[in-house]
Automatic annotation (TrEMBL):
It comes from Sulfobacillus benefaciens. SMART domains: RHOD. Residues 32-115 form the Rhodanese domain. This is Rhodanese domain-containing protein. InterPro entries: GlpE_sulfurtransferase, Rhodanese-like_dom, Rhodanese-like_dom_sf. It holds the Pfam family Rhodanese. It comes from the Bacteria.
Length: 116
């Protein structure tokens, strides 16, 4: 798993899909009802303190074991507090063949509604 976290497995990365997405664009996609999966990779206590409505929760350190819970037919938007852990998650998922974008700035930049 560590090789994914440090980004050594990039052979499946698609140069056509941007690697990041702004929180405003994520909110627009959700408001339009686009088929995206918001994947929150923060720890349980962070997720409980407030998350994007409908977000799927898999902490980063469990992602390698739980990747089978995700489907490859929708774009996945990874989210954490600041964008660093979710960038690691995005690299891991991209290496597994998922279409994934990391939300820049994480929840610190999210201005949409959160649920607890």
């Amino acid at each position: 798993m560590l090789e994914w976290l440090v980004g050594k497995r990039r052979e499946n990365a698609s140069p056509k899909v941007p690697t990041t997405i702004d929180p405003e664009e994520v909110k627009e996609l959700l408001d339009k009802g686009e088929k995206i999966v918001v994947l929150d990779v923060r720890q349980q206590h962070e997720y409980r303190s407030g998350h994007i409505k409908g977000a799927q929760h898999i902490p980063l350190m469990e992602l390698n074991k739980r990747v089978h819970e995700l489907r490859k037919d929708n774009t996945i938007i990874t989210v954490c507090h600041s964008g660093r852990r979710s960038a690691q998650a995005a690299r891991l998922l991209r290496a597994e063949g998922f279409t994934v974008r990391n939300m820049a700035g994480g929840m610190m930049r999210w201005r949409g509604r959160i649920v607890r």
